[in-house]
Write a structure and sequence with these properties.
Blueprint: H1 3-6, E1 8-15, H2 19-35, E2 40-46, H3 51-59, E3 66-67, E4 86-87, H4 92-102, E5 106-110, E6 116-121, H5 122-131, E7 143-144, H6 145-152, E8 155-158, E9 165-166, E10 170-172, H7 177-183, E11 189-192, H8 196-205, E12 209-212, H9 220-229, E13 232-235, H10 240-248, E14 263-264, H11 270-279, E15 284-288, E16 294-299, E17 310-314, E18 330-336, E19 350-353, H12 359-370, H13 376-389, H14 400-413, H15 417-428, H16 436-441, E20 444-449, E21 452-460, H17 464-485, E22 489-495, E23 503-509, H18 512-518, E24 526-529, H19 535-548
Parallel strand pairs: 1-2, 1-17, 2-3, 4-5, 10-11, 11-12, 12-13, 14-15, 17-18, 18-19, 21-22
Antiparallel strand pairs: 5-6, 7-9, 8-13, 15-16, 20-21, 22-23, 23-24
Helix pairs in contact: 2-12, 2-13, 3-15, 8-9, 12-13, 13-14, 18-19
Length: 551
């Protein structure tokens, strides 16, 4: 069953997911699965979870959402029917009938282990038929007796040597007796009518096989002679010309197939699949598993209708922060609490963007409004998202609704709010053993503001001296990120939640933006801001206002 059949909708947060992003995806999926039975809502994440989020999920025994690197449609999203295939040993005649009855122009070829070994199409049958005009020798392409009998619809009258393959030259006894006897050599195959005297002479001369056409009666003396000399004796219901043609169609498919196939896997992007199909001379692609076994067969017809994954975005609405290939997805909803970004959609969608401290507050509010059942574990992860994004309800973004939602969720989860908040804080602040790159990447977001490309990370510490020791490493990493990705400014905001009175800032690039926004002096790539900053409510808006005024 494909995602199209089950109508999956992926609920996903931003890249470098934080606790609010992951927990809001989990909570909103739960809410939607209760209130909207049209789809199956599945939480996923656009990156690795951090230690804080791992603590939360372990604490409430909630499995981590599956990581999704790209939301581009894949082969697995197509509605694939059970593939029709032909075996290597099947006859060309059986292949032609299968293609005719199935209404297809090409088929994958499989071996005894159901592994794909090639592809064959109408053009291969036509080419084989044209080349068989001079069909007269089986030395290089012996014919299986079983396949020949099935193709002819004939009967084996005698086969004392238990012959399995027909070899040698083929002759049609349409000439005088002396001429045909002079041409036939031991081991040859002869197609003949009801000339019993010639049949006996051919058997005596050592031909390996005699095929009697038109379903003519075969005399007892001929059958006895064939048995005595070990000659294969076959009765064909067709006239001589048709018998020859059907013999050519008795060759195995492996003799005419093309071993070069356009192959894809279940998770090959549809864009890559489409390219392979268009470049294939058979205008198709074979879907295989890791062991080359056949899963599906895709043709141009299967790609006529566009295929897109469905998604709901939570905790972001900017392309730069979204999972890769978001422009290829069908976005159904956006649930967020940030500034309005640049994601656009083809059709109207539901957007709920509420300036509260956490997306989890938005999700919890919807659950309260709809009066849906909130299990303890869902209440726990939503509470964690709120506490994480508001720094235990202390950031300037915190609203009364955040505090109310946190209190209600703590009650449902059966935990003490303040005590759990301290647990969460200690789980989220641990820089020991981590590199500068890991510390900055843990909560890094990209913003496009007034034509400037900004990269802003945020981290918390309990001991400011820890930062003193690694400050130069952090600055070097900020510069590396800036130069490698073309940022105009990269910033690391460092907060000590126990002091909660100022923000330490490390930055690389166009420092004048920060100086103008906050009326501070940047020295040695660092400065102090007089209060704790919310990245979305305080820091980015201030930079945007400074940029709008010009340098």
């Amino acid at each position: 069953m494909t995602p199209e059949d089950t109508k999956i909708v992926y609920v996903i947060g931003h890249k470098n997911p934080d606790t609010d992003s992951v927990c809001s995806a989990i909570g909103y999926s739960h809410f939607k699965n209760i209130t909207d039975k049209r789809f199956l809502f599945t939480p996923v994440r656009a990156g690795k979870i951090n230690e804080e989020t791992k603590f939360v999920l372990d604490r409430f025994n909630v499995p981590a959402p599956t990581e999704m690197e790209s939301i581009a449609a894949t082969v697995n999203d197509l509605s694939m029917k059970k593939p029709i295939a032909v075996h290597e040993r099947d006859s060309v005649h059986a292949l032609a009938l299968l293609m005719k009855n199935s209404g297809v122009r090409a088929l994958p070829v499989v071996d005894d282990s159901e592994r794909v070994s090639g592809i064959v199409g109408l053009k291969d049958i036509a080419s084989h038929y044209m080349e068989s005009a001079g069909f007269s020798d089986l030395s290089h392409a012996p014919i299986s007796l079983d396949i020949l009998i099935k193709t002819l619809g004939g009967r084996v009258i005698s086969n004392t040597k238990k012959v399995e393959l027909l070899t040698g030259k083929i002759h049609t006894a349409s000439m005088q007796k002396g001429t045909i006897l002079n041409r036939v050599r031991p081991g040859d195959v002869v197609i003949i009518g009801d000339q019993q005297d010639i049949q006996l002479d051919l058997i005596t001369s050592g031909c390996s096989a005699l095929i009697v056409t038109d379903g003519m009666p075969i005399g007892n003396d001929v059958a006895a002679a064939a048995q005595a000399h070990g000659t294969l004796l076959i009765s064909s219901p067709h006239h001589a010309y048709a018998t020859v043609q059907l013999m050519t169609m008795s060759e195995p498919v492996v003799s005419i197939m093309c071993s070069r196939t356009s192959e894809v896997g279940l998770y090959t992007p549809v864009s890559e699949l489409r390219k392979k199909v268009l470049e294939s001379e058979y205008r198709s692609a074979v879907v295989i598993d890791g062991d080359r076994r056949l899963i599906g067969f895709i043709t141009r017809t299967d790609l006529l209708n566009p295929v897109r994954k469905r998604a709901i975005l939570v905790d972001h609405n900017e392309v730069s922060q979204a999972v890769d290939n978001i422009e290829e997805a069908e976005i159904l909803e956006i649930i967020d609490h940030h500034r309005v970004g640049d994601i656009s959609t083809v059709a109207p969608i539901y957007v709920y963007n509420d300036p509260v401290g956490s997306t989890c507050t938005v999700v919890a509010g919807m659950m309260f409004l709809w009066q849906v059942n909130i299990p303890q574990e869902i209440a726990g992860v939503l509470l964690s998202g709120i506490l994480s994004d508001t720094l235990l309800l202390t950031l300037s973004t915190t609203t009364g609704r955040d505090k109310q939602a946190a209190a209600r969720l703590a009650d449902i989860a059966g935990i003490a709010l303040q005590e759990y908040g301290k647990e969460l804080l200690h789980a989220s602040i641990n820089i020991e053993g981590k590199t500068a790159a890991q510390l900055i990447a843990a909560d890094f977001k990209e913003f496009l503001v007034s034509g400037k490309k900004l990269g802003v990370s945020q981290m918390m510490v309990l001991d400011c001296e820890e930062i003193d020791w690694i400050e130069q490493n952090l600055l070097s990493e900020l510069e590396q990120i800036r130069s490698a990705n073309g940022y105009d400014l990269t910033v690391l905001l460092i907060t000590n939640p126990l002091l909660a009175s100022y923000e330490r800032v490390l930055l690389k690039g166009e420092a004048w933006i920060v100086e103008k926004a906050f009326n501070v002096k940047v020295e040695n790539d660092t400065c102090i801001l007089p209060r704790v900053m919310s990245r979305k409510k305080d820091f980015i808006p201030a930079l945007g206002q400074a940029l709008s005024m010009g340098r």
